Amino acid sequence: MLRGINYDIGTFYRKDELSRPDFDESVIKKELEIIKNELYCDAVKITGHDTYRLSKASEFALQLGLQVWLTPSHIDATPADAAQHLVECAIAAENLRLIYGNIIFVSGFEYSIFLKGFMKGESIYERLEKMFSPVGLVFNLLGLRAGIYRKLNIYLRETTQQIRTYFKGQVTYASGTWEKINWDLFDLIGLDHYRAAYNRAFYNKQLEAYYKFNKPVVVMEFGCCAYMGAEDKGPMGWAVTEMVGERRIVKDGVVRDESVQANYITQTLDQLKQENVHAAFVFTFINPMYKHDTNP
Questions:
Q1: Which pLDDT score is estimated for 92?
Q2: Which of 94, 175, 199, 279 meets the CB 3.0–4.6 Å disulfide criterion with 179?
Q3: pLDDT at site 170
Q4: What is the dihedral of CA 125, 197, 108, 52, to 10 degrees?
């Protein structure tokens, strides 16, 4: 099993707010060396918006011998704008593939909520709320969002055809577990699959449901935060801050505990290895814009 980690070179999760404002090439090289030599990763999933940054960070990683999963992000874009961005990134990825090989193209992630046009809502946060509200979860369970996934699969078919015009390597997509994807379009099955309180008992069963497609299964994101109780929250572990006036603070009662994160990652890696997953990527290496304190 390939062991990897997500590495964000700058994503606009909010308008005009880049998750990594500075792109210091010496820092990027150093962090990728840490990923290879200290975290013992075989692969890195490089995510971000700017095509130059994606290409440069990918080149550094490839030179280190890491397999690169190049993943463009264009959050809150229209489907048309996102498609154009994917083509630009596919051209850059092919240029790298011709020199280094060992690069896989990820044609987006969780588009039902990260792009406009599938779920109602102007921002990712509005769409997240709709998707994961109690009513939204019932809608999904009852299959009442089938129209959204039909529309998404048509879009994925069109964009994947465009990507393959320029990029001649393997192509996949990082899906949410709620999305019903036509995997015939892709070479590998990509799944953002977090273990949390709500699915701990059937985490492996959820994964095994994808074996029927007879393609390598890849866990594109998994992990948890470093505080007590974070292992129960899975992908929503980040939601422990709130705005008080102009300041963002960590909510009361949150107790930092790095052993929670370490145990979660090692236990999940063991599970995924037993399931013969092709590759697994921890989320995430660093987010410089997250609330932090100089006192560790």
A1: 98
A2: 175
A3: 98
A4: 80
Task: Give residue limits of the domains in the chain.
Answer: 2-225+257-282
Low-confidence stretches of the chain (pLDDT beneath 70):
135-144, 296
pLDDT at 135: 66
Rounding to the nearest 10 degrees, give the CA dihedral for residues 85, 5, 181, 213. 130
Is cis: bond before 172, omega within 30 of 0?
no
Beta bridge partners of 219: 191, 280
Name the CATH superfamily housing domain 2-225+257-282. Answer: Glycosidases (3.20.20.80)
pLDDT on residue 48: 97
Please tell me the distance from the alpha carbon of residue 148 to that of residue 19, in angstroms, as a whole number: 28
pLDDT of residue 34: 98
Q: What is the pTM of this model?
A: 0.94
How many other CB atoms sit within 10 Å of the CB of residue 53? 18
